[in-house]
Amino acid sequence: MNPVQLTPLRLAGLADVPHALPYQGSKRRLAHAIVRLLPTDTDRLLEPFAGSAAVSLAARHLKIGGTARFSDINAPLIGLWQRILDDPYGLADAYGRMWVDQRADPHAYFLSVRTEFNEQHAPHHLLYLLARCVKAAVRYNSDGDFNQGVDHRRLGVRPDLMRSRLVRASATLAGSRARVADYRDVLARATERDVAYLDPPYEGVSAARDHRYVAGLPRSEFVTAMIAAVASGTSFLASYDGRSGDRVYGEPLPGDLGLLHLHLDAGVSAQATLNGSAAATVESLYVSPALVRRLGGVDEVIGRLAAPGGGARGLDGSVARPPRCRDVEQASPDVAAASREFADLP
Predict the structure, then answer these.
(1) What per-residue string of b and e applies to 224-249 under the rule 16 or more CB within 10 Å gives b?
(2) What is the pLDDT of residue 275?
(3) Contact 265, 6 (CB under 8 A)
């Protein structure tokens, strides 16, 4: 089945979302589409590959859903989010002191903070590193240590602006919770009124020594988890592959999962812009059968996203329909067994 090509409408209401963390790879642009696919009866938005929590922030900013529950296996990152939720003023004070203290020798100061963070994982150290590292791009070595270099062109976000972002983000996420968790556990605990947004590492970008994630994610593991989530009737959206100019990231998820596959125009790649080019970015978004049903069918999903004249059609000119989801028992024995295992998690 060909993916449906869409240019999503941008929401004016998301123009002033208070993003707390500078974070390359954030789904701020895609959030304009994702929040449109959250049903009115959504209880909790689950974001188990949290990163900058861009989707949770967008949804809560628009008061969509009852609350947000975001998580990650990156414990220091979740520690920073917990500090943002619980003590944004104290975190802002700590950041402000570091911003002032760095001025005598910004490079040496950054290196000392990076060393201390890798030893202690203090939230204010991670916030400072995110604000000062090259292109706001986190990098971890094979030991899981933060090893991105310093950006020599700037001193990071000014303390007054950082304070505003932290305080506003904390207020926007009031009542939400952040925790360290594996995405499979999050999916297994989802209720029929929850919606999960999954943004795992793109296939092919998380296996290098110096990468953006504390751990990679084998494709076979993720596909097996998707089979289990479909079989249990979980409502979810997933980003997994995409394209920037001529560069392709990952293979599409298998068609027999029964997911509605959308290709969303995400504009010009921020990374390409930094590199001096202007590559257009296309992001895949997959919608689970349960969520398609909750939204009223494929045409309703497409109608929620399509801009006037935006080309909400498959490559063959027809509106694509998701295939009927196969019964999980028809999958390979290993996949079926794994699906049952995940479904039985407490």
Answers:
(1) bbbbbbbbbebbbbbbbbbbbeeeeb
(2) 54
(3) yes
At 298, which helix (H) or strand (E)? helix 298-305
Q: Does residue 9 or residue 165 have the better pLDDT? A: 165
What are the DSSP calls for 119-154, one per residue?
A: HH--HHHHHHHHHHBGGG---B-TTS-B---B-TT-
Nearest by Cα to 128 from 140, 144, 148: 148
For residue 241, is it left (φ>0), alpha (ψ between -120 and 50) or beta?
Answer: beta
Rg, the chain, Cα only: 20
Side chain identity at residue 3, one-letter code: P
Quote the CA–CA distance of 214 and 87 in Å, as a whole number. 25
Determine the Cα–Cα distance for residues 4 and 312; give it in Å rounded to an integer. 6
Q: Are the C-beta atoms of residues 57 and 173 closer than 8 Å to each other?
A: yes
Domains of the chain: 4-73+196-343 (3.40.50.150), 80-171 (1.10.1020.10)
Phi, psi of 210 (to 5 degrees): -105, 85
φ and ψ at residue 7, rounded to 5 degrees: -110, 100
Q: State mean pLDDT over 217-223.
A: 90
Is residue 312 within 8 Å of 268, Cβ to Cβ?
Answer: no
Q: What is the SS3 assignment for 294?
A: helix
